[in-house]
Every structure is written in C-alpha cells, then in structure tokens.
Write a structure and sequence with these properties.
five-stranded mixed β-sheet, 34% strand, alpha+beta, binds copper (II) ion
C-alpha cells in the first residue's frame, strides 16, 4: 500500500516534470499600438504616415487657433497642440453630437478621466501631439471638454472632402 502511494507520488511528480516550464513572456514596454477602431470621423493615424502637420493653439479665451480646417479624405494629420494659457485645455475630435454629449457629461462629472486616441490633453504651457487619419468625408468638429470650455465656445470645425 505504502509502496503504491509512493509510486503514485513519483508518477505524479514525473508527469508534472514532463511539462516544460512555460517561457514567461515579458511584455515590452512599447508605445501603445495604434488603435484600429474606426470612428465616424476616422481612425487613429500612424505617425510614420502623417502627410501633414497642423499646429493648433489653445488659449484661456476659450479659443482654438485656427478654428477651422479643411482636410483631404484619407489624409493622416499630425496635430501639434499647444496650450498657451494658464488653464488645462484639450483638443477632442468628434461629431458635433458626440462632443455635445461628452461635454455635458464632463460638466456633470468634472473629474471623469477620459483618454482616447482622438484627444490631446495639454497642460498649461505644454505641447502634445495627436495623429489622426480622416477616412471619411464630412463635417466634423474639435472641442475642449474641460468643464465649461465647450459651452464657452471652445470649438472648431473640420471639413473633410
Ligand atoms: Cu479649454
């Protein structure tokens, strides 16, 4: 009986040992992969494929400069977004409907964190970049969703044709 148990244990140990130790895969701390999510207003762009750079300034007067852009359909644009003010600002791409809804939500929940490839949050005096490919023609917008800013007129228009 004891011998049987010992044999069983030995066998069990053997069968365990038969499994090679799986190689632990250490995920490399690489940049976030480019999202493939397709939005009505396009998709995240590959920085290597950016064919145009657009500088956008944001100010505490709640204005974007420029506040209107025309983009060719299919174009990948690198936005270089500078905050010239003393307040936090952000540039969020979307349809007017989406921006309105999102802005209303930010008013209700001011501390809500949001971070998507179509947003650039920029601290005072800083510059951030955002790369976006405009895959569909249409009329889109960009707004600052810091509570009160969108309502204060911090919005711009993008025509994709
Ligand atoms: Cu703002």
């Amino acid at each position: 009986m004891i011998r049987t148990i010992a044999t069983a244990i030995a066998l069990a140990t053997l069968s365990l040992a038969a499994y090679p130790h799986g190689e632990v895969k250490h995920a490399k701390k690489a940049a976030k992969p480019i999202s493939t999510e397709e939005k009505v207003f396009g998709r995240e762009g590959d920085p290597k494929k950016a064919s145009r750079t657009v500088k956008v300034d944001m100010s505490d007067k709640l204005r974007f400069t420029p506040d209107s852009l025309t983009i060719k359909r299919g174009e990948t644009v690198k936005f270089v977004v500078k905050n010239r003010g003393k307040l936090m600002h952000e540039m969020v791409l979307g349809t007017m409907q989406e921006l309105k809804e999102h802005a209303a939500m930010m008013l209700k929940h001011p501390t809500m964190e949001h971070d998507e490839p179509y947003m650039a949050h920029v601290a005072p005096g800083k510059t951030e970049t955002m790369v976006w490919q405009f895959t569909k023609a249409g009329e889109f917008y960009f707004g600052c969703l810091v509570p009160g800013h969108f309502e204060g007129g911090m919005v711009g228009k993008i025509i994709v044709k």
